[in-house]
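Deliverable D4.2, example record:
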Amino acid sequence: MSEANQGDTPTISVSPIGIVRRHAKGAESALGPESTIEALRAERVSMIVDARYVAGLLGLEAGADILVLCYLDRADREILQVHPRADESRPLRGVFATRSQMRPNPVSVTSARVLAIEGTTIEVVGLDVLDATPILDIKSHSAYFDEPYRDA
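Output generated by the structure prediction step:
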């Protein structure tokens, strides 16, 4: 899109459908200066879905793989170039060539595995976001749609 067309860009409004709750605290938590994405993803966390959306959980069950879209509300939206995983020995890249949380619209997409569902609470493993991160959407994982496109 050229700069001349930026005024024509529609404003989009979305509202969270829930929130992430991390249970581990202190030394038990994978969060901290020495944390790794692998440790963060290995923690069991709760996704608390707003009661008005509970009907949307029909058919979702333990063992299912899902895609969770979250809004990274603490991310810096002005940064457009980063060293991947904050490793300055790696070359600087544009945020669209990375999985960085720093981006104009800090939306994350992470695959997770459902461990249990009780009421409005979905217990999952695999989610790499912080406590109290707003959840925008949940989608079932599809081997067809979620694999990279390949020429026939």
